[in-house]
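User: I'm writing a tutorial on reading structure tokens. Could you give me a worked example: one chain, its sequence, then its tokens, then a sentence or two explaining what the tokens reveal?
Assistant: Sure. Here is the example chain.
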Amino acid sequence: MLIYILGYFIRNDYQQISTIVYGYSIISIICCFPIRESPVWLLSKNMYDESLNNLKYFRGVKKNDNTDYDEIKNELDELKRAVPHRTSKREFKETIGRPEMYKPLLIMIGFFGFQQFSGIFVVIVYAVQFSIEAGVSIDPLLCAILIGLTRIVTTFLVGIILDKWGRRPPAMISASGMAISMFLLAASTWFPEVIGKIPYITVISIVTYIFTSTLGLMTLPFSMISEVFPPSARGQCAGITICCGYLMSFVAIKLYPGMVSSIGDENVFAFYGLVSLLAIVYVYIYLPETKRKTLKQIEDHFKN
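And here are its predicted structure tokens:
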């Protein structure tokens, strides 16, 4: 949203905006230096003392306090027992053929595919251009700010919704709202004398699309990575999945301008709506429910 606001006030000068963003990046790098390493990662490297010190830090123990806290040691012992055996490259190649490995891997790659080709990141990246092509009746740069604001507000609701409803219902509701929004955008061009005359229909459709996508399809693929893969190979599987996700994101974002020029913006909107409809079917058939299930239960689900 900060970038959208900069674009609103600094128009036609992307060099100046890039310079400001460069400053954000420098601040981000500086902020990384004081961050402590994860106690679990340190335990996986057999660095027990460093892990204990960092766990004390995260539990609010002062630096000069040398007291041995039994509850912290007990917590560290529990973490130590829970630290999985790290799968080597050779072991990973041997175990990738097991259903508890390849099934969640393929399901999550497919989930990322629907996330990308339903147009979520296209709308975010091309916010202003997308708003112009959708024919919004307000300043497109202001519409971009509304997109950013909607994402922020919705993100506060995501945790509550996922905790209450699980994973599958929000995903299907999210895809349904996205499909309706995109078909409304397409219909406003197909039927300008009927749908197109509804006040602010394009702005409402875009904001609703962002709202519903943030509730599920935008956030769930990333959050479920930590839930569906076996702990021993979660790093490798997550890396492959995210790599495929970003490759598909690259393709979707690069294809958008060419799709608009070749088939027209209204048909592009309809395409994104169709993909969102197919995502509902995909989630219903393939996506497992992970709410309040242990890693063992999820692993057994894929084994069977």
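What the tokens reveal: DSSP finds 16 helices and no strands in the chain. The CA atoms of residues 92 and 233 lie 7 Å apart.
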